[in-house]
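Researcher: Going back to the complex we discussed earlier. I've cleaned up the inputs and rechecked each line, so this should be the final set. Can you rerun the prediction on the complete assembly and write out the structure?
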Amino acid sequence: MIVFKDVFLRDRAALFWIIIFPSLMYLTFSSVFSGFEKRVEIKVAFDMPKVFLSVFEKNFKVIEVKGEKKIRELVLSGKADCGVYYEGGKVKVYYGPWVESKMGKEIIGSILENFGRPEKPIKDIRFIEKGKKQSAKDFYFPSGIVMAILGVGFFGGINVEEYFRRKGIKKMLRSLPPSNMPLDLQMFLSHALACLISTGVLIAIAIAIKAEINLIHAAFGILYGIMAFIPLGMGLGRIFKKASVLVANLFYFILLFLSGAFFEGRISVSPSTTLVSILRGEFKMLETVLWIAVSVSIYVIGRWMDERNI
Amino acid sequence: MSVIMVKNLEKRYGKMKAVDKISFTVKEGQIFSLLGPNGAGKTTTVEILEGLRKRDGGDVEVLGEDPERFSAETKRNMAIVFQETALFENLTVLETLKFFRRTYGGNVNLYEILEELGLLEKKRTLVRHLSGGQRRRLALATILTHDPKLVFLDEPTTGLDPAARRKIWEIILRLKSEGKTIFLTTHYMEEAQFLSDVVCIMDRGRIVEMGSPEEIIKRSGLKSVVKAKIDGKEITLETDEPEKSVKELIERGAEEINIRKPNLEDVFLHLTGRELRD
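Model: Rerun complete. Updated structure for the full complex:
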């Protein structure tokens, strides 16, 4: 594809943004925050007599469940940092190897050892380690993917549109006899291919550094990202024309910020939040379809405005 | 046979009339130059003819079709060289020509074209590394990758040095010799005067004069100016027959004789009160 060759393959700056920048950011965040874990709030799966509830609620975010099996599941999946289960005067404390979990285990141990003293101390407390460590390299994988797709698909979409217009290439291509592949489809596929390369490199790095990633979630996320952000970029590029680079910068950082890829507090209504949700295994069909539809609609409006103004 | 027919063409941008009811025809094999200062409406007119811009009024036919509904076949019979030499910056010279040959379904030997245009040594050079003159030559080379009947050249020599400009003129004359019709826009009057069969001068969206360069100058009524010194005294003559005047001045013992014939620049100034490159 001529567009891919011109805009991505032969452009050193583009190669930097496609491959090196997201990889560097991912590796930098992963190493800088290597001691930083996924959650700052300790979540405790709780199946204990009600008398314990108030003291646990003072120290943790309590998830009340029924049964030891459920507690084990929650700790194993990482949805709870610790789990406490009481049966016949015995308490089992489930925890994992990550920092919050170990902190939680210590606090729980202290609570239980002091509970009922001196009259009725709990004599039998068992600590059981479950679950896998989730480190920064796991946590920043979605961030890397979001950055790659927004940078290459969305930001690149707007910039290539503006570059082609400024250099007169759009006019030149419009004057040519129709080719087998329309220009817009070529542009979409070029950006999609660039997104796949960029995210593919990130996945390879994630595997190499043994990050915990789910390839199916990643594949769905990348597919959604391509569908939701490339047409959006192409559309905005046509709507804002000369101001499109400014708009690209503005939207890029807003979408990146809203995604919640870097921060715990997420804004729920944003196409980039949906991308992060998919990457973290929370697939929401309605949101996904909605954002793709919005993106395609903006592309259609941009195309219509472009045609109208000639 | 008319290759281009324009009748009462109009184009407005908001309240401003960029093209105001202009009419002309371009015959097969002609070099037709649209001349005018920046903002005269040249680019708008040529883009309407190329099918890149919609018109607000009037009738236009290019190769027998309305440019707003060009068929693929008609597009194949046209070639356009844009003002900005719009080419893919990161393709090599050879790849660029291959792209155009493939797009137009041509079957020519690209190495011959490269050799003819002095670009053979640059065949593996990226377009972004070419000089201005080389880019223009490459843009013209794209025309040679197929066999168009009609060629649009939008300010093909703007910003080039005289030598590079001469080279481009040679190529344009070669295209004409092959029977191609050439529609040229320029604001270089000497270019229009040297190359054109017909010159159409536009100003503020209107045609102010049209015809062969000689006809236009003759119709303007502008005379040649002959300056000479006789016995140390400077004299200035305005005449329609400068050669005859020079002969007479020589016979009277005149020295330092200078002749200045009117050109299209003078005609434009005469007609509009403005200079062409304003």
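Model: Worth noting: The CA atoms of residues 18 and 205 of chain B lie 5 Å apart.
Researcher: Good, that matches what I expected from the previous run.
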